[in-house]
Design goal:
single chain, alpha/beta, nine-stranded mixed β-sheet, 9 helices, 20 strands, binds zinc ion
């Protein structure tokens, strides 16, 4: 999307000279920062920043995955993040990810692979063999979820199959040995618009690719006089503490290189605002008591402003007021969410980035059901509503809701 829109790729290993224009930079091929360096000095105008995360809870293949049992080959998996495990049973699963190989010239190279067809499943135990399944069944991630890949009569290991897949997808590579991989299982069922009046959107990874897509799409139409930025970070689902995660230095070092003068950098941060976008929990008609009765966001009623006095969300009255003013000016509905006082609250990259940069921040997101399931549900209007507000944010040439003194 960015290359098609004329953004230039920056390399962290090269020296940068950032003049007004459109750029992006990636780290580990799993986090990305895209920005429009405006014609005006960001030290005077601040930077309009939107954040989201690229990762989603899933099952990842273990390094020595093969489990031979009764003539079947299953694959051992690690649980990445807070997976809702039950919905992973009886799905048509595929495998994709990164494979690192050594070629015949001893060069180490990484390539992406995607089996791109249903190659595995996690069959449920029949109810006849577990009469208490609907009332008592729990899921043991070590024992119950290794996906079933094939019959072992073929005598092929998973590593051999993977090597064939690399050769098929990357015939130009002369692979001498396969050195490592990071592979995830995923649902082959595509996204769908559902509901009698097409009011729902069902898909995998709505948390948080919906926000990544909406943010990048909005950035493409950003005003070119002011500076705007979108960051999509890996590893949010496991706490963000990594070289490419929101708690790492990726955003700070990118901003420092955009503004090498320290005083300019600090002035720009003081003028800036970050909208952290991540999905919210809509009030569920079957479980309404899981929400505070005054704060139950509805699907298709607009983006949700997330508030938590204990700073699990970074919103405050001033950053929230600014977001409300953007919504109102653009006829976009909005809602607010606080968690029940007797329940623990989730968190996002918002407070982490606020702490790392010292930037004014707020947390918003579209309401969804089934967060962290293999298939989540959003309202079909809400991504568009969020995009309208983010586009208005990226085109705001004013003071970004700064309080006049
Ligand atoms: Zn999320």
């Amino acid at each position: 999307m960015l290359l098609d829109a004329g953004f230039s790729a920056l390399d962290e290993k090269q020296s940068w000279d950032i003049s007004p224009g459109k750029y992006f930079v990636t780290r580990n091929d799993s986090s990305i920062i895209a920005f429009v360096r405006g014609k005006d000095d960001p030290a005077d105008t601040g930077i309009r920043m939107v954040g989201a995360h690229t990762d989603s809870p899933c099952l990842k293949v273990k390094p020595n995955p093969g489990i031979d049992s009764h003539g079947y080959l299953n694959l051992g998996v690690e649980v990445y993040g807070g997976v809702l495990l039950n919905p992973w049973f009886d799905r048509d699963l595929s495998i994709a990810g990164r494979v690192t190989v050594q070629d015949k010239h001893k060069n180490i190279q990484s390539v992406l692979v995607n089996f791109d067809r249903a190659v595995a499943t996690i069959p449920s135990l029949a109810i006849h063999l577990d009469r208490e399944a609907n009332t008592q069944r729990t899921v043991n991630p070590q024992k119950d979820i290794p996906p079933l890949l094939m019959l072992t009569k073929e005598k092929q290991t998973f590593e051999e199959i993977l090597r064939e897949q690399v050769a098929q997808e990357h015939p130009e590579l002369e692979v001498a040995s396969l050195l490592g991989f990071e592979l995830s299982f995923y649902n082959t069922q595509g996204a769908a618009i559902t509901g009698m009046a097409d009011e729902f959107l069902a898909s995998a990874r709505l948390d948080n690719l919906l926000s990544c897509y909406t943010g990048i799409e909005s950035l493409l139409s950003a005003d070119d006089s002011v500076t705007s930025l979108m960051i999509c970070s890996d590893h949010e689902e496991v706490g963000s503490a990594s070289a490419e995660g929101a708690e790492g230095p990726f955003l700070r070092t990118t901003l420092e290189r955009m503004m090498p003068n320290k005083d300019d950098y600090h002035r720009a941060i003081a003028h800036s605002l970050l909208i952290s976008t991540d999905n919210a929990h809509g009030i569920h008609p079957n479980y309404p008591d899981k929400h505070d009765s005054n704060h139950g966001p509805l699907l298709n009623s607009g983006p949700v402003i997330k508030i938590n006095a204990n700073q699990r969300y970074a919103t405050n009255s001033e950053t929230s007021a600014y977001f409300v003013s953007l919504c109102t000016a653009n006829d976009v509905p909005y809602q607010t969410f606080v968690t029940r006082t007797d329940m623990a609250c989730g968190s996002t990259i918002g407070p982490i980035t606020a702490k790392e940069l010292g930037v004014r921040t707020l947390d918003v997101g579209v309401p969804t059901f089934a967060m962290h399931s293999i298939r989540e549900l959003a309202g079909s209007d809400d991504a568009y509503s969020l995009a309208q507000v983010l586009q208005a944010f990226y085109s705001d040439c004013g003071s970004l809701g700064a309080i006049s003194k």
